[in-house]
Amino acid sequence: MKSPDERSKERAAAPGVTRREFLEIAGGASLLASLPGYAGAKEVKGEIPRRRLGHTGEKVSAIGIGGFHIGIKKISDDDAVRIVRTAIDNGINFLDNCWDYNGGESEVRMGKALLDAYRQRAFLMTKIDGRDKKTAARQIDESLGRLQTDHLDLLQFHEVIRMDDPERIFAPGGGMEAALEAKKAGKIRFIGFTGHKSPEIHLHMLETAARHHFHFDAVQMPLNVMDAHFDSFGKKVLPVLVKNHIGVLGMKPMGAGVILESNAATPVECLRYALNLPTSVVITGCDSLEVLNQALDTARKFRPMSAGEVEAILAKTAPLAQDGKFELYKTTHHFDGTVQNPQWLG
User: Fold this and answer.
1) Fewer CB in 10 Å around end: N or C, the chain?
2) Which residue has the higher pLDDT, 23 or 291?
3) How many CB atoms lie within 10 A of CB 322?
4) What does residue 300 show for φ and ψ, rounded to 5 degrees?
5) Cα–Cα distance list, 119 to 55, 173, 292 (Å)
6) Which region among 3-12, 220-229, 234-243 has the lowest average model confidence (pLDDT)?
7) For residues 116 and 18, what is the distance between their CA atoms, to the nearest angstrom?
8) CA–CA gap between residue 113 and residue 75 (Å, rounded)
């Protein structure tokens, strides 16, 4: 059996996606409209576009609400509830969260927002950190309790950022056993994973799943104007997901705000670029109604970008992106919650 390092070297030596192919993925309107993960904005003109979530048959809003920001201290409980409900009332149905966000406060607040029939209008996703069956099962149940729901639409294994994470999750007695048992019990509908560190780790997770005859429903990863130039998920992982009809969850369209510090792209440009990729949903953090309304407006007005528009924004960001300076989640441990809290893994 080949080691992860050997597999990584093989991929590095193998031909990847060319610049022309990537521009076709990122900027070809006809390709975008034909992909199984995309339903054109014309389908719900003037409203939030809906896109197919891979092979699941579900349709989710092109923009989703990130769960982390809902639980930060500067936002009150009432404001958090107001942001989530305003999003749903305006056509957003995809809600992101995680067992470890803000010590569970993000899930607690979202649970409050989903009372009074709002749950029935939402596609609810949360993530767990547990790598072993016992820890994963406990975290699933805790998340269900905080979110005040009897089921999750999508459960994802969070922070797959180490090359041995896939083996731990799929091992006998691993977290996947808990997820499959929860699915059988009706606690979850679909299963995915997320990570932000390396495309190679994502590909290894997909390979490990295939060896265990498991097909993920969705995969979450950073997709933004800087990623296109540096250790790119968009170039290395996105084509694999599209080919295999796996739902594409784009995150960090503004690099947790760091990309905006480059002054190379505005928030709207960042959102438009991410929406232009063959994503099922682009998850963005909204810590105020003003930021939410910006996301809503961008989604409502979205039309596929031309190849020239894509080339122009990539030309602006290329000189700044080469060393990962504006993608700290790839190059530092700043965003690695499970590195700082290894006990969450079990």
Assistant:
1) N
2) 291
3) 10
4) -65, -40
5) 23, 32, 19
6) 3-12
7) 50
8) 14
Q: Find the length of the chain.
A: 346
Identity of the amino acid at 120: Q
**Strand 50-52 to 59-61 pairing:** antiparallel
pLDDT of residue 21: 52
Lookup: tokens for 115: 């009372």
C-alpha distances out from residue 247 to 74, 91, 221, 267, Å: 32, 19, 11, 24
Q: How far is the C-alpha of 119 from the C-alpha of 123, rounded, in Å?
A: 8
pTM: 0.89
Q: Find, among 157, 149, 65, 139, the residue nearest to 114 by Cα.
A: 149
Tokens of 23: 């521009």
Q: 10 Å Cβ neighbour count for 304?
A: 19
Digit-coded pLDDT (tens) for 70-124: 999 999 999 999 999 999 999 999 999 999 999 999 999 999 999 999 999 999 9
Task: Say if CB 321 and CB 229 are below 8 A apart.
Answer: yes
Amino acid, res. 19: R
